[in-house]
Amino acid sequence: MTAPVLTRGLLDVPGSSLADHLAAHGPMPDVDLHALVDRAALTGRGGAGFPTAAKLRSVAAAASATGRAPVVVANGAEGEPAAAKDAVLLVLAPHLVFDGLALAAAALGASSAYLAADPALLPGLARSLADRGDRVGVRLHPVASAFLAGEESALCAALDGKAPLPRTKFPPVRERGVDGRPTLVLNVETLARLALVARGSDLGAASMLVTRRMEIAGTSWVDVVDIALGTRLGDVLRLDDGVQAVLIGGYAGTWVEAGRAADLALDRGSLAQAGADLGAGVLAALPADRCGLRETARVVGYLAAQSAGQCGPCLNGLPRIAAALDLLARPTPPPSGLLADVRRWSGLLPGRGACSHPDASVRLVASAFGVFGPELALHRAGRCTARTGRPFLPVPGGA
Ligand SMILES: Cc1cc2nc3c(=O)[nH]c(=O)nc-3n(C[C@H](O)[C@H](O)[C@H](O)COP(=O)(O)O)c2cc1C
Ligand code: SF4
Q1: Which of 87, 398, 95, 125 lies closest to 222, judged by CA?
Q2: Domain architecture of the chain: domains with CATH
Q3: Which of 76, 175, 215, 244 is most buried, by CB atoms within 10 Å?
Q4: Distance between CA atoms of 120 and 123, rounded to whole angstroms?
Q5: What backbone torsions phi and psi does residue 228 show, to the nearest 5 degrees?
């Protein structure tokens, strides 16, 4: 696999030092963050696309109701195995993230601030931090490399020294998070964009970092690019005959047939028409020589293994669905009724877990059945269109 490459946009700075950063973006102005973020209509880049202004307001309200100073957390966990944008951002433009964190902390009157990320990134971040004089000191915290570690309640638990597991949605972390305080958790890209919005930059709310995964002449390629919202996906990825489908969003995302994906725009409204979402900003172009069912079975096997096994849907449902998918992904007739069983089980999972992990996993499965339906029929007849079994999507542990 090639190393992630950043080609242009948000991270297009000559270097990652504070001097480079100030030369590229200038000093941070004194702004009324609440009003600015509202006007900019900035949405979160950690997956759910929640309006950042509403989050800021709700944490401020919880702080004033409880009389406890809030905590702000920069979420750099990047638990999504197909994504690389947060790591690239933290390496190439750490000061934009620290600026955003300082802005959010000041706007909320926070008592403490954290940046949580892969342990390998922490020494570089510590060097960047040492050059700064932020009013609220930032503590760096290592995050386990696990799909759920970046879920906000799991992250707050880890910052409190507990196991990094999601907990029930109530009370939400914006009311009771780290140290029982109202806690603002924002993705590191959201914070970087906050810093640009504050400076009045066009790159603020109007674009997003995308991790592209594709194959070029049989060689795997992954890069991170800053793409204007509204751009046609056909202009972001080369979606010719060599590509059969695009995984949009990541492993909590959706498969869309390549021809249809080409005309979708990189924005929530357009993607929603295809039942898709921007998610963690992953666009993976599945080559025509792979089996989409096999790729989905590998990913769902990983997602089932990653669940914390605390709630019914993850304890019983996901492992069963993963095992059934593994059978359906083989070019042999599956046990009779298995496909109907998976559909039925999938219908039972949504809304029943403490977090949205099972909901997203079954949405991925449903999209695979829609896009790779003809392949399902071929498998029943003992055939498969794949010309290679070489894995395309990265699955930690190499399933
Ligand atoms: C299963 C699961 C995993 C998640 N993993 C991450 C992650 O690795 N990084 C991240 O920023 N957000 C992740 N999130 C979203 C966070 O819970 C939270 O919504 C986000 O950090 C908020 O930031 P934003 O408003 O800037 O998007 C995950 C959510 C779920 C349900
Ligand atoms: S729904 Fe699944 S992943 Fe989410 S908290 Fe419950 S067991 Fe864990």
Answers
A1: 87
A2: 18-198 (3.40.50.11540), 229-287 (no CATH), 292-380 (1.20.1440.230)
A3: 76
A4: 7
A5: -65, 135
Does 45 sit in the ligand 1 pocket, CB within 6 Å?
A: yes
Residue listed under structure tokens 């089980």: 345
Which tens digits make up the pLDDT trace of 185-239? Answer: 999 999 999 999 999 987 788 999 999 999 988 899 999 999 999 999 999 999 9
Q: Distance between CA atoms of 10 and 86, rounded to whole angstroms?
A: 12
Sign of CA dihedral 339, 343, 348, 352: positive
Q: How far is the CA of 371 from the centre of ligand 1 (A)?
A: 27
* Structural contact between residues 18 and 128, judged by C-beta atoms closer than 8 angstroms: yes
Q: Which two tokens stand for residue 282?
A: 């992953």
Output the ligand 2 site: residues, CB below 6 A: 148, 166, 307-311, 313-314, 353-355, 357-358
The pTM is what?
0.96
pLDDT digits 0-9 by tens, 122-158: 999 999 999 999 999 999 999 999 999 999 999 999 9
**Helices within 109-173 (DSSP H only):** 122-130, 152-159
Q: For residue 307, which atom of ligand 2 is closest to its CA? A: 3
- Sequence length of the chain is 399
User: Which is it for strands 71-76 and 183-187: parallel, antiparallel or unpaired?
Assistant: parallel
Structure tokens given for 19: 């001097």
Name the residue type at position 19: A
**Number of alpha carbons in the 13 Å side-chain half-sphere of residue 211:** 27
- Sheet with 71-76, edge to edge strand ranges: 138-142, 112-117, 71-76, 183-187
pLDDT at 363: 97
d(CA 152, CA 160): 12
The continuous run of DSSP H or E covering 90 comes out as: helix 85-92
Strands (E), the chain: 71-76, 112-117, 138-142, 183-187, 207-216, 219-228, 243-249, 254-257, 282-287
Q: For the residues 348-357, what does the mean pLDDT come to?
A: 92
- Rounded to an integer, the average pLDDT of 337-343 is 97
Is 161 buried (19+), middle (13-18) or exposed (0-12) by CB count in 10 A? exposed
